[in-house]
Amino acid sequence: MPDPRPLPDRIDRGGLAQGVGAYFLWGLLPLYFPLLAPAGSVEIIAHRVVWSLVFCLLLLALTGGLADLRAALTHRRTLARLGTAGVLIATNWLVYVYGVLSGHTVDGALGYYINPLVTVALAVAVLGERMRRTQWVALGLGAAAVVVITVGMGRLPWISLVLALTFGLYGLVKNRVGRTVGAVTSLTVETAAMAPLAVAYLAFLADDGRLTLARGGWHAAALVALGVVTAVPLLLFGGAARRLPLSVVGMLQYLSPTLQFLVALLVFGEEMPGARWAGFALVWAALVVLTVDGIRSGRPPRRVAELAAQVVDPQETVNQKSPKETVAPTGTRTS
């Protein structure tokens, strides 16, 4: 398991660059999807599943990881859990892309801001973990934010909630898989589980004359590149997790939704009424409470520790033990 070491006097610059690069790419991802027009959100996700699978298979072949893939495929329980993870992450991707293309990128950013809070709630509800008083305060602030936005905007921020819940459940399922399956191997199996549906949908579009990939040129190249766009940030995160204290990785996670938020406001020109500002302020306050609690407890964010362990060494087997008390968790973005 990665060492939850304290902050050193000097941060590894290479590791920091990789971590910033990973979250920077995830944060700017909303700028990529409009470039794929006229492809709709479902077609985009179908291509993302297919080409991510192709890219991951090539990567495993080049790095000698196919043996790990075969090992994962022989364990029925692991296979079932990774298949479930594939459904969850594909749903997360679909809702996220729909949010961007429908002018709700702000809601997407909110979803990834509140993800750590949802993960804490899932740790209590599903894993039976205990929370400290400050964590209850953070959850209360997060719940108040949802109420304020719902009342003020006249609608439930369902995109935010679905993104946070699906990614929280995704992390929970990956936690059940344990650390015997590396990140690239895991993503390969997850996308393979969804590939039949993706291929069937693309075949339907092709038969109906609506497959935009047939346009060729830049548009086709951009769709195929979705595989690289998906995998590269994950690999950068793996490098950062090897070289940085987990506390630093946990702090970097907020860079991604912050960039999404800025893209929504400054590039897409999405509106921010007073109620939405108030809701975001409550969420930011909750995250400050959660982060300070994690720092004062002297323990790194647990979800970062778990997922970092999965990407540090795809061939590493680590025995996992669940802690008795919840700490401020986060997750590795794959969206």
TrEMBL record:
Keywords: Cell membrane, Membrane, Transmembrane, Transmembrane helix, Transport
Keyword Protein biosynthesis: no
Source domain of life: Bacteria
GO cellular component entries: plasma membrane
Keyword match Cell membrane: yes
Topology relative to the membrane: Multi-pass membrane protein
Transmembrane segment boundaries: 20-37, 49-67, 79-98, 110-127, 134-151, 157-173, 180-204, 216-237, 244-268, 274-295
Location of the region described as Disordered in the Swiss-Prot/TrEMBL record: 315-335
Subcellular location: Cell membrane
Domain EamA: 16-150, 161-291
Family (UniProt): Belongs to the EamA transporter family.
Name this polypeptide is given: Protein RarD
